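Fold it.
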Amino acid sequence: MDAGLAKRMRVACAVAVAAIGAATVALAPGAVAGPATLMPDLIALSNEQDQMIVTKEGGKTLLRLTTEIANVGNGPLEVFPSATGSDCDANGSATDDRDAYQRFFADTNGSGGYEPDADGVASERQFGCLHYHAAHGHWHLLDFAHYELRRDPGGRLVSRSTKIGFCLVDDRNVFPGPFAPEHPHYPFGSASSQVGCDEHATQGISVGWADAYAFSVPGQSLDVTGLKRGHYCLISTTDPLDVLEESNESNNTRRVRLALRPKRFSVRKLIGGCRE
């Protein structure tokens, strides 16, 4: 046997032995995996007819829209602030912001869903920024939603929002179930804010619940000044920068087809999906 062949055989044997050893470790009897992590899953609910209006404000024509973001995961979305600011909003001041942390829970009792009396904290991670929103009078998680309006069909972008911040609260129990709390749980820990969202509060959305921002709230609008009458696609995206961790990252966008007549201050939801 030549030296090269012998060397190749030794290498092959070593690889086979290593593979067998790895398989043995993976299948070792008595090995028990830790509890699964309960994850949130955020979706934007569809805009209904009574959740949209067209108005004239300060020389502009605006399409105002209500946004509802629901948690359909098996764990809550829970966000809490750092003790002090760090200018994470990059506005030159550390007095109006806090680093944002996301908290995850372990399925300690193996029930498949979050139960506060049984399931403890699994981990925490820093991910974004909480900022004081003067127009709303409370603290927001920045970059939580984004809205676009496109021609349908064709997909040409005609209007877009800035990134929208939310104070995360349990507003409506939209998907009742065994792991959806009967009463709102978030926010909590507020020291001063009437709505519960100050720089000390833990914000979030419970399993089965949704946070709603009505069309009357500042920022809940798209500029449609000068647009022609026609069909459009309203696109609402939750967590547009993907800074939050979820069980499903592919279902954060909702599309609604509209018939829009800005000059007549008319908007009508159409049956069927967008064609853009």
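Helices lie at 3-26.
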